[in-house]
Design goal:
mainly alpha; 0% strand; globular
Length: 256
């Protein structure tokens, strides 16, 4: 019957689209509307195919944005697109969320300074870790990516300088987000301080931390101190300002 044929075609095309575009979750509503048996039975196949084509064009448009911030082109950009589709399936992301994080990572310079393969791996690792942190913190992925990008940008280079001086493997962005995110989550679980508040404090004190080049252990201490102050009832932003002032006064005392 037309109904059974439509149902079979829907399953087949849905599978093809999932392989092409990543998880079906981001397109479930579109597929349901365009590929239901009733629609196909009345000649709506062209409409369904048109929507599928539009989805492909939209994905290509999103990847253009990724290319602009990452400076990847041709096969390198296509390879990143393929990696992002795999990440979508693994993490249950929409195409918009996955490409959005990749675009943010590019604007932050994630993975620059190495080969294009290294850059792609760093962007995927960053995006995966951010997705996990966002879920744990109950924050939007885009906001989480932006926050970790800001926090990491002020210490990432100095951490790796210190590691190289000790003949240790360099830290990647995935490791930074996972280690920092885990520490923030543990602090939030052990005291009355929310993850977003600790992030706000670290973001506020970031430029000051860059000037004193803390070790990874000292960075963890600053996170813990932020949590302790927030637990007294201070906001994350005010906590960061207080810590900035404390460092500035200490530097003045030392210079005197």
């Amino acid at each position: 019957s037309a109904s059974s044929m439509g149902s079979g075609f829907k399953n087949m095309l849905a599978g093809d689209l999932a392989n092409t575009f990543g998880p079906a979750a981001g397109y479930a509503n579109v597929l349901t509307a365009a590929l239901n048996p009733a629609t196909l039975a009345v000649g709506g196949l062209a409409v369904g195919m048109g929507i599928a084509t539009k989805m492909a064009m939209n994905y290509n448009t999103m990847m253009v944005g990724v290319g602009k911030t990452t400076n990847l082109v041709g096969q390198d950009l296509a390879a990143l697109g393929s990696d992002l589709q795999k990440l979508q399936m693994e993490m249950g992301l929409t195409a918009e969320a996955a490409t959005g994080m990749a675009e943010q990572a590019g604007s932050m310079g994630v993975g620059l300074g190495g080969t294009t393969k290294y850059q792609r791996e760093e962007i995927i690792g960053f995006s995966k870790a951010v997705t996990m942190a966002a879920g744990a913190f109950k924050m939007e992925a885009s906001t989480t990516a932006d926050s970790f990008g800001h926090m990491g940008s002020v210490v990432f280079e100095s951490f790796n300088d210190q590691r190289r001086a000790q003949d240790q493997a360099a830290m990647g962005w995935e490791e930074y987000v996972m280690r920092t995110g885990s520490a923030i989550n543990s602090l939030a679980d052990s005291m009355p301080a929310k993850e977003y508040q600790i992030i706000a404090a670290l973001d506020k004190i970031g430029p000051t931390l860059k000037s004193i080049t803390p070790t990874e252990e000292q960075y963890a201490d600053w996170m813990a101190l932020s949590g302790v102050i927030i637990a007294t009832g201070q906001s994350g932003e005010h906590t960061g300002e207080m810590l900035k002032d404390a460092v500035r006064f200490a530097q003045l005392d030392n210079s005197g």
